[in-house]
Amino acid sequence: MRTRITFSKQGALRYTGHLDLHRLWERAMRRADLPLSYSQGFHPQPKISLASALPLGFSSQCEVLDVRFNEDIPTGVIASRLKDSLPPDIQIASVKIVDEREPALQTQILSAAYDIQLTEPVDGAELRKKADALMASESLPRERRGKFYNLRPLIETLTMVMGSNGAISLQMKLAAREGATGRPEEVLNALGIEPEYTRVERTQLIF
Fold it and tell me: If you write DSSP's letter for every residue of 51-104 in order, what string do you get?
């Protein structure tokens, strides 16, 4: 039985890495007495796969994982059991059964949407001008791990939002395909914004 769980990741768990999150889910499912399916071999691993690694410090409303169980269990029972086994900073949004023949979860992601709150004051008019210039450009050379690449095709949308209280946020949708992943911090750097003066939340994974 292949089950897909959509969940939020907030609070202190923003600083929990990908591998630790994987282990957190495995422990929670064991505590919930759910019949996890394991791989074969000398080091059996639970058949849990997260859709996309979330960088440290980012919160999310929309994380997704696939898990395989050895028995058929009603989705309501799965959600109910996990509710008491997960930390409060993880909240389950939905649990559904998916076709075992579907491709691997990680290969189905096309893009990801982010909401970025700026925690330091900036000139809104100047930022809007920079964002418009960035979207109008054909090329945006960047370097990551010693390799150069063009960031511009990875930015699908970029919008500046001014709140009623004067606070400024950015909303962006970035490509998240294998070998073509846009990173919010790279876009912020291109706009002249230090990522440490922002709060980033992933709001949607587009499959």
Answer: SSPPPTT-EEEEEEEEEEBSS---HHHHHHHHHTTS-TTEEEEEEEE--TTSPP
Its CATH class, for the domain covering 2-106, is alpha beta
Q: Would you state the pLDDT for residue 177?
A: 84
CATH class for the region spanning 111-206 = alpha beta
Q: Where in the chain is the domain with CATH 3.30.70.580?
A: 2-106
Low-confidence ranges of the chain (pLDDT < 70): none
pLDDT at 80: 95
Amino acid at 87: P
The answer to pTM > 0.85 is yes
Q: What is the pLDDT of residue 82?
A: 96
- Residue 160's alpha-carbon distances to 22, 53, 102, 125, 180, in angstroms, are 34, 25, 37, 10, 24
